[in-house]
Amino acid sequence: MCLPWVCLFVLTALGWESYALVVGPVQLGNNGTYITYGLGPSPQNSTLECPYQLQSTEEVVQKIEWVFQDDSQTVGTFEWQPEDEARATGRLDGAVKLNRTDGWLELTELRYDLAGYYSCALTLSNGRRMEAQKFEMLIIDTTSNHVYNKINSNEGLCELEASYSSYAVYPEPTVLAGMFSPSRGGFYDQVTGFQWHKQFYNNGSVAYSFEDVHFKIDSSTPTDAQFRVSASVLKEDATNLPLHSITSHLPIWKKQGCPALPRRQNQQVNYYYATLTCTGEYIPNFFSDEAKVMLFLVVLTFTKSRIAYGG
């Protein structure tokens, strides 16, 4: 933003033509974040848009050019002009709708090798050309929607036992699982590398699973703890594209009572009708509505023949 008189000075100094065209960023239609392979090609699922703004009514779009790159190499192009037939080359040949009236790039078939970086450039009737920043477009194949997740709690051992398996995903997903706490900023006790099982398939997709992994619940377990599994695909710029997330809450770490009384030297604390929780607090036991606490001062007297207790 700038003040009106500053903007006017800039426009006057640089020329209005420098601000007559704004292009990009490239984006997927229908507010999508990736193309879903299983949905097939469609205007809603597989169309890349090249948004632009013309600030002068005297000029019109003469040409829109698309460049498709994979591993920094140009592997396809698509050129659209309002008065001529559109043309596609390389991997895009035969995979793009040629008779669109807006110059957007609509894939008419989906293949794994059509994922990569796409950029577009607009040329106006006065010859001015501007290019949008390239956009990483992923085609994700989730193969199915079946997820298995089992959580068991053992209050006697103060343990949580978890198992999980999920559908195969292309490209290989990032899967995280374990004890999660918002107050701690994320996972604090995770399923480790050797506990994961990975199944590889011929199409390059990968399925993740683990079985009977144990997690300890104790006094260090935060009150907002939860067991969470999340699967996502990461883009090269570290943008996270979530696929699914499962969150489980169990009473084993939610039981809250009274903390144990601090003891000084020669003091003894007895708890009646009370049960110690896994998180180290006392609550009334099953047969009582309240718990009682008694504090004693213990004096030990040692003699040769006996030990006498007084309090």
From TrEMBL:
Query: Where does the UniProt annotation place the signal sequence?
Result: 1-20
Give the UniProt keywords, A-Z: Signal
Statement: the UniProt record of this protein carries the keyword Signal: yes
Domain Immunoglobulin V-set per the UniProt entry, residue ranges? 44-129
Q: Which InterPro entries did the record assign?
A: Ig-like_fold, Ig_V-set
What is the protein's name according to its record?
Immunoglobulin V-set domain-containing protein
